[in-house]
């Protein structure tokens, strides 16, 4: 397994995010009407197995101190193998290298596996923020990153 940086316009990233959005619409009963629009300011990481991207996640800077983890997704066939946990750690490392002292994220109340992952990795629930404030299905989390010695 390899974790590598990919541009937002990478075809495999686009395919993974499209699959993520489709799954979200199915999981929330069609309530999530979001459409993926690539942002140049999101840095994506892809998990590659046997030459194929099987998972992705992005990091977007909110401000100098805070990065937001976006679009975490693991193809169903690769779930339960620790892929998401390793990807999350790599995104946290990327945020740290970019100078962030905090990372935050949003997920849906209808995604208990995601909530379990984030809480088991040290994320604390925070009030919903930004574009998620009006979404009754949003739940947000944050984690303070270690300080460089």
TrEMBL record:
- One Pfam family matching this protein: Acetyltransf_1
PROSITE patterns, sorted: GNAT
Query: Which residues are in coiled coils?
Result: none
Recorded GO terms, molecular function?
acyltransferase activity, transferring groups other than amino-acyl groups
Q: Which UniProt keywords apply?
A: Acyltransferase, Transferase
User: From which domain of life does this come?
Assistant: Bacteria
Residue intervals of the N-acetyltransferase domain: 3-146
Q: Which InterPro entries match?
A: Acyl_CoA_acyltransferase (IPR016181), Bact_Acetyltransf (IPR050832), GNAT_dom (IPR000182)
Q: What is this protein called?
A: GNAT family N-acetyltransferase
Query: Source species, please?
Result: Micromonospora acroterricola
């Amino acid at each position: 397994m390899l974790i590598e940086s990919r541009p937002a316009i990478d075809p495999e990233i686009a395919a993974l995010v499209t699959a993520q959005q489709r799954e979200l619409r199915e999981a929330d009963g069609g309530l999530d009407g979001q459409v993926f629009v690539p942002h140049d300011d999101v840095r994506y990481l892809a998990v590659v197995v046997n030459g194929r991207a099987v998972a992705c996640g992005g990091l977007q800077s909110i401000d100098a101190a805070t990065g937001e983890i976006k679009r975490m997704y693991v193809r169903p066939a690769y779930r339960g193998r620790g892929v998401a946990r390793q990807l999350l750690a790599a995104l946290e490392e990327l945020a740290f290298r970019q100078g962030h002292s905090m990372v935050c994220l949003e997920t849906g109340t209808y995604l208990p596996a995601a909530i379990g992952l984030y809480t088991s990795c040290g994320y604390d629930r925070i009030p919903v923020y930004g574009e998620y404030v009006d979404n009754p299905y949003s739940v947000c989390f944050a984690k303070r990153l270690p300080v460089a010695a």
